């Protein structure tokens, strides 16, 4: 299958630089799959499961949490706030983060600001758990 160049970066550095058959991720408006020949395109990323497919067919799963993706003249750049490969995710930590967030969300009298922060924390934990299920 045809491939295209993909770079995946985070504030911590370049996590991937190579050819892929496909990149799939969650944007703020829904799931997106990029294949060779995709038109020029820019979008903001949401929180969700993501994966890439390498030229030999290997699939690498990841948690993708926010950022931007661009496809320009056949090259894709994904600059994520957080991109964690499945094998790097600590499932126990995510379970604990989920429990903590849920417990705090169940407390009475939390502010709107804390509600938003805790909801985002819970969502991140759920994404990590779904990637490592
Ligand atoms: P926690 O409460 O466990 O810190 P969090 O959702 O608040 O979870 P983040 O602020 O999203 O954590 O991430 C802080 C840093 O820790 C980032 O570098 C992120 O990649 C890493 N990280 C967070 N949770 C995990 C996890 N379960 N496994 C691996 N790395 C994680």
What do you see in this structure?
- By secondary structure, the chain is an alpha+beta fold.
- The chain has 2 domains: 4-87, ATP Synthase, domain 1 (Sandwich), CATH 2.60.15.10; 90-132, Single alpha-helices involved in coiled-coils or other helix-helix interfaces, CATH 1.20.5.440.
- It is 26% helix and 49% strand.
- It has 2 helices and 7 strands.
- The protein has a 7-stranded mixed beta sheet.
- A hairpin with a 2-residue loop joins strand 1 (4-10) and strand 2 (13-20).
- Helix 1 packs antiparallel against helix 2.
- The longest helix is centred in the C-terminal third of the chain and has 20 residues, at 112-131.
- It is elongated, with a radius of gyration of 16 Å.
- It starts with a strand and ends with a helix.
- The model has no long low-confidence stretch (mean pLDDT 97).
- The protein binds adenosine-5'-triphosphate.
- The site of adenosine-5'-triphosphate has 11 residues, from strand 7, helix 1 and helix 2.
- Adenosine-5'-triphosphate (ATP) binds at residues 82, 84, 88-90, 93-94, 97, 121, 124, 128.
